[in-house]
Amino acid sequence: MKIGVFGGTFDPVHRGHTALARAAQEKFQLARLHFVPAHIPPHKQKRPITPFLHRYAMICLATAAEKSWLPSLLEAPGNAPESRPSYTVETLRRLRFTLKKADELFFLMGIDAFLDIAKWHESTALFAECAFIVASRPGHSLADVAAALPEKLRPAQKVTAPFQRQRATGDLILPGVRVHLLDSVNNNASATAARQAAAAGRPLGKLLDPAVADYIRKHNLYRPG
Ligand code: ATP
Fold it and tell me: Is the CB of 107 under 6 A from ligand 1?
């Protein structure tokens, strides 16, 4: 079975996330897709992050209509380390315990996040745990994607140079690397834009599922002071 994992801060979950989830599920026939909000301990935060419970509740609302989309507690406080952010490689290993040997994991992300993947904890080992489904954007080439790989998995520059002008689309399959690029996710929503719109009392319908927008209003999230 093919199983998707979508990790993020999801502060809040928005239409860009669900567009990527839908496109990935359609193209790769994922039987299940776990939405995994990260627990980020307060002292590790660059900006104040909304408490885990609110972010999880909003994911429950945004995924309610899709039977195969599962809000996940894998990185909930209590399940994940309390003293540092949870690492994706550890989360996937925990998930693996619950799966069959033949099950395949696909980790979903946007290309902006993927370009930093080499800095992730045990990044080389992470590629052994899962394949990646990455939402591409115009302006990035296949060579950029290859250059972002952890050093041990990265092909020599002379190999990737010819792909410098080739749009980041299709598959990048190398020893120990499976990256599938999706160029069909054309939704520019971001959590930053959603937080700013909520703070300013602007309409949220373009960025968020209506139930998530209602939740934000009811709980007065993202409002200044
Ligand atoms: P922020 O604006 O606060 O930086 P964000 O909108 O990027 O947040 P995250 O929860 O940090 O949301 O993102 C989780 C994952 O979803 C990341 O891999 C990110 O690249 C991806 N992502 C976010 N927005 C989009 C989008 N509009 N289309 C495709 N992928 C997206």
Answer: no
Query: For position 74, what pLDDT does the model report?
Result: 95
How high is the pLDDT of residue 100? 96
Ligand 1 binding pocket includes 28 (Cβ within 6 Å): no
Low-confidence stretches of the chain (pLDDT beneath 70): 42, 44
Does residue 115 have its Cβ closer than 6 Å to ligand 1?
no
Q: Which residue owns the Cα nearest ligand 1 atom 25?
A: 16
Q: Which residues of 146-168 are buried (b: 16+ CB within 10 A; e: fewer)?
A: bbbbbeebbbeeeebeebeeeeb
Beta carbon of 116 within 6 Å of any ligand 1 atom? no
From 10, 11, 20, give the residue whose CB has the most ligand 1 atoms within 8 Å, as the site to mutate: 20
Q: State the pLDDT at residue 182.
A: 96
Q: Is this model's pTM higher than 0.90 or not? A: yes
Please tell me the predicted confidence (pLDDT) of residue 104: 97
Amino acid at 157: Q
**Nearest in space to 7 (alpha carbons), one of 127, 83, 89:** 89
